[in-house]
Structures are given as C-alpha cells and as structure tokens.
Amino acid sequence: VVAATSTLALGVHMPCRTVVLVGSSVYLNSTMFRQCCGRSGRRGFDNVGRVVVFGMEKERMVRLFQSEDTHLAPARGLASMTCLRLMRYVNDSLDGGDAQWALTTALRVLNQPLYEGTYRSEGNAAQRYHHFRFTLELLARQGLIDDQGNCVGRSLLVERLHFRRETLFFAYLLDRGLIHQALHTAQGDRRKALLAIIASIFLRQPVCKSDGDTGVILPAPPQPIQEAAKQYGQMVFEVMSQYLRAYCRSYPDQVSDDTLPLSRQRVDEPRPEVAPLEARLQQAFP
C-alpha cells in the first residue's frame, strides 16, 4: 500500500491494481485525474484496473469521469534554430546513407508539428511552409547555410546554443568582427567589457524604477553593436515582410483581416441591437 499525493502521478513509474482518490482538491483537474487513475490496470502488469473515489461530490466525480482529454497546444512556433537543426540533420544523414529516412522525418516535423497545435487546416499548413522557406532565406543571408542547403559558417555554434534566441544575433556580430572591434577600443579591463557585451545580448532584463539601485545596471553596448542591432533587426523585418506578402498573394482566401478573432464578426457588418441595461435586467428578473 502506497499513500502519496498527486505528485506520484507525475512521471513516476508506479503501476498498481487499484487507485483510491480520497477527498477533493482545487488542483484536481481532468488531466491530473486521468494521470492518477492511469496508474491502475497498467498494461503488462494487470488485466483489470480499479478506481475508488471517496469523499468527493457526486457532481464533480461525474464531471471528471466524463471530461474530455486536455487539448495540448504549445505556444512556441517554428523557430529559426529548429529549421537550422533540421537542415543539419538532413545533411548529416545524406552523408551517412540514410537520406530517405532523414527526409521523411524532416517532412513529418513540418507536416505534423508538435510545436504549434493550432495549425491544422490547409491554409495554416501553407503558412507554415512559407515561414520555413523564408526562415531558410534569413539563415542564408547570415551565412549559416549555402545555396545547396548545407550548414556552413558558424552554424555549429548556433546549434549548440539553440535554446537562446539571441544566438543568431551573436553569430551576426562575430561574423562582422564587431565584438573584437569593441574590445580593442574598450577602456579598462577587457574581460569586464566582454562580460558586459555578452550580458547585454543574452541576459538583458528590464528594471523598474521602484527597484532603485538594488540590481546591477548594465552599461549601454558600444555604438557599433547598437548600429549592428538596428541593421540586424531591419534584415529580419525585411525577410519576414517578404514572407507575409508572399503568403497573402498566394492564399488571398486564407487571409482575413476584417473579422474579429473571438466573436468572428466582420467589422463592416452592423452590430446587433443591444437592449439597454435596464431592459435586460427586467427580462432576467421579471
């Protein structure tokens, strides 16, 4: 007999024949309920699993049993790092002789993405392909892939730091020698200057005025790096603007900018007549 909280249901391999849920909790939602109940009757251990609910309101118990599965919809989209790592995976597989398997796997990532659960219609799939195409254009402009799709330059460095979005800008500065230039003209300890530059790229955090002098305030980056940040932002804006224009021209029926996202009401349609508050209250409480 194991007595535990719901933490036992989060990733711990603990199969059992019977699960007893004692009491109710505000944290017991449909997902947690299924995780707890899933410990009973685990395939390969028992043929039948039993779930006993004790001390819970009948209405809530019925609602939990009849609830639908939680819809997983990740918020992260198709990142530039993902596209670069896909190209690396395909290129390495071509050299190793597993070309067909690599292409199938890469297409599966694009056709059945786990990183954006809302793209399911045909138009959204086309938008995803356009985004992938112009992301490769951005990587090519940065010298990370060549015209044949091979990963070149500082692509390996970018892949190793794929968890940081600022890595592309960091590689942009390295290619142009701006960090070395800033260190060459820096006054004082160059190690502190390098640390300040790296921190300003990767670890910038806004500071509220109410915080006072409790935190470390980073100095402004050198002027060449500030100018490079503007140029890099302009390059990204240009490529992504081309992506949006190309998609809108290719799929004009999929683009709708005159409909409200929640009510689905067109902005050029007349709004329905709404009774005054007093009349609605009289209807609700005759």
The DSSP helix count reads 11
Helix content: 40-55%
What is the straight-line distance between the termini?
58 Å
Strand order, biggest sheet? Answer: 1-2
Question: Can you summarize the main beta sheet?
Answer: 2 strands, parallel
Radius of gyration based on Cα positions: 28 Å
Write down the secondary-structure element order: EHEHHHHHHHHHH
Q: What integer is the average pLDDT?
A: 79
Describe this structure in words.
- The chain has 11 helices and 2 strands.
- The protein has helices spanning 30-37, 58-66, 80-96, 99-111, 122-141, 155-160, 167-175, 178-184, 190-202, 223-250, 277-284, and strands at residues 18-22, 50-54.
- Strands 1-2 form a two-stranded parallel sheet.
- The longest helix is centred in the last third of the chain and has 28 residues, at 223-250.
- It is extended and about 70 Å long.
- The model is unreliable at 117-123 (pLDDT under 50).
Secondary-structure blueprint:
Elements: E1 18-22, H1 30-37, E2 50-54, H2 58-66, H3 80-96, H4 99-111, H5 122-141, H6 155-160, H7 167-175, H8 178-184, H9 190-202, H10 223-250, H11 277-284
Features:
single chain; 286 residues; mainly alpha; two-stranded parallel ribbon; 3% strand
Summarize the structure.
The chain is mostly helical. The protein has helices spanning 30-37, 58-66, 80-96, 99-111, 122-141, 155-160, 167-175, 178-184, 190-202, 223-250, 277-284, and strands at residues 18-22, 50-54.
